Task: inverse folding
């Protein structure tokens, strides 16, 4: 579904990604973990059309998407739930969800997706008229995930969805990701919480200093003592 | 000796009670942890104690002094300061200028030059002094923010999610730094990473929906059924 080859990303003199290659197959949950500044979010931003790479290719559903604008990528089935959530804090939960589904032309589909969001996160339905900025951090993150899904994506990229959340909310996010897998959604999960990525992902890429250092299933990676020490065992 | 003491502390925003009649204290030399779900009032508690937000009711004392109406800069003068969930440094200024700005607050009552140099080396910022603070990594910025509080010779530092957003190896290093920091001053730590609470806190207070629901040693609190049900859940991710 997604294929990245020899990706290089630069911000002025700073090299964020250096020859990154990875792929995501339909129906998979693929994790990308690594420390701050490793280049994880740069990968997400390139895929979502927010940053133009210095070199390399990105194909989504067989077509090159380098240089494609973000709103066109959403229409093709690619959504990004950014780090920091990207909500409209002065709008209600329901209005935020409608904004997430702005690219849909079918009213019926929009309504069905909203119901799916409410099934995934029942608290959002209970509070659908509440102003988003007044909700707790955990509820805001649930809304951000739901907004990303309102675009009816085939591939959804989640950038650090567990950041700053209470353990029980991370559990809710983890269960939601696993529920999405059952619905056939493909997920690219960018995370620092290696335990969350290890729980839900089929495969994991470990990125450090702009390079992929390891790539394997979580089960295999979690048996590697060097991986455990550097990336997992906090 | 009790250092920070709060009683009947309440704060509402509109109709929402962020803090409801919270009672508690910290002891000099102790590291007091605070945990609770997102939106349970933890940051509001720090905002109220550190003079950023005024409580609706309740009493607040620090080392026996009423601090309820004090502003943050006045609290720094009596030895109480805090760090922020989203790190706050002067990003356009150099590391050195950030430190010098922090020292201005207490003028000659703060730390001397030699002591500041020792802290700078301890926090591994001595080679970053001429770097623009905004270009530092998050971990370096968190250490700089901590240094900017330490030059004020605090008796208590309130740390709001000190390992938030840090990578695994950085979390390990931050825990080591904070363990060493315990010898320099008392700490109050809000965290969602339970390893930080287990390894640093002598005692833990739990806030749920603005109310204190438990207070005790970490080993006891992390087994508390209400804490498990409403906060920890499956601790595999914590």
Result:
């Amino acid at each position: 579904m997604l294929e990245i080859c020899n990706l290089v990303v630069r911000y002025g003199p700073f090299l964020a990604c250096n020859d990154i290659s990875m792929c995501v197959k339909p129906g998979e949950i693929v994790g990308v973990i690594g420390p701050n500044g490793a280049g994880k979010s740069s990968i997400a931003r390139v895929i979502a059309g927010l940053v133009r790479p210095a070199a390399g290719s990105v194909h989504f559903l067989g077509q090159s998407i380098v240089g494609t604008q973000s709103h066109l990528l959403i229409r093709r089935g690619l959504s990004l739930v950014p780090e920091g959530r990207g909500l409209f804090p002065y709008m209600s939960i329901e209005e935020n969800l409608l904004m997430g589904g702005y690219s849909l032309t079918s009213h019926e589909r929009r309504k069905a997706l909203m119901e799916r969001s409410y099934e995934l996160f029942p608290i959002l339905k209970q509070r659908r008229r509440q102003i988003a900025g007044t909700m707790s951090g955990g509820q805001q993150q649930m809304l951000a995930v739901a907004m990303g899904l309102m675009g009816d994506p085939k591939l959804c990229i989640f950038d650090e969805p567990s950041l700053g959340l209470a353990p029980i909310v991370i559990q809710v996010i983890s269960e939601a990701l696993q529920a999405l897998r059952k619905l056939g959604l493909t997920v690219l999960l960018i995370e620092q919480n290696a335990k969350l990525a290890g729980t839900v992902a089929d495969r994991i890429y470990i990125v450090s200093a702009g390079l992929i250092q390891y790539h394997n299933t979580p089960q295999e990676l979690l048996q590697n003592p060097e991986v455990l020490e550097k990336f997992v065992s906090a | 000796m009790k250092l920070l003491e709060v009683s009947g502390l309440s704060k509402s925003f509109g109709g929402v009670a962020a803090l409801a009649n919270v009672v508690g204290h910290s002891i000099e030399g102790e590291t007091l942890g605070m945990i609770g779900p997102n939106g349970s009032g933890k940051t509001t508690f720090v905002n109220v104690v550190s003079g950023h937000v005024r409580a609706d009711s309740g009493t607040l004392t620090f080392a026996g002094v009423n601090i309820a109406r004090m502003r943050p800069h006045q609290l720094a003068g009596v030895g109480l300061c805090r760090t922020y969930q989203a790190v706050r440094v002067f990003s356009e200024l150099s590391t050195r200028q950030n430190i010098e700005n922090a020292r201005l607050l207490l003028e000659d009552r703060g730390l001397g030059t030699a002591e500041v140099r020792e802290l700078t080396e301890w926090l591994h910022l001595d080679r970053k002094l001429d770097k623009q603070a905004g270009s530092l990594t998050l971990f370096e910025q968190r250490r700089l923010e901590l240094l900017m509080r330490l030059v004020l010779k605090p008796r208590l530092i309130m740390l709001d999610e000190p390992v938030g957003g840090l990578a695994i190896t950085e979390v390990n290093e931050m825990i080591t730094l904070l363990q060493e920091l315990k010898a320099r001053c008392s700490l109050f730590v809000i965290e969602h990473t339970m390893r930080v609470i287990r390894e640093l806190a002598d005692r833990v207070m739990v806030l749920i929906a603005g109310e204190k629901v438990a207070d005790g040693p970490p080993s006891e609190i992390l087994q508390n059924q209400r804490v498990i049900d409403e906060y920890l859940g499956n601790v595999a991710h914590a």
Notes: The beta strands of chain B are 2-13, 16-27, 31-35, 57-62, 65-66, 80-82, 156-160, 186-190, 203-208, 211-216. Chain B touches chain A at residues 14, 16, 36-40, 85, 137-139, 161, 164-172, 192-195, 230-238 (CB under 8 Å).
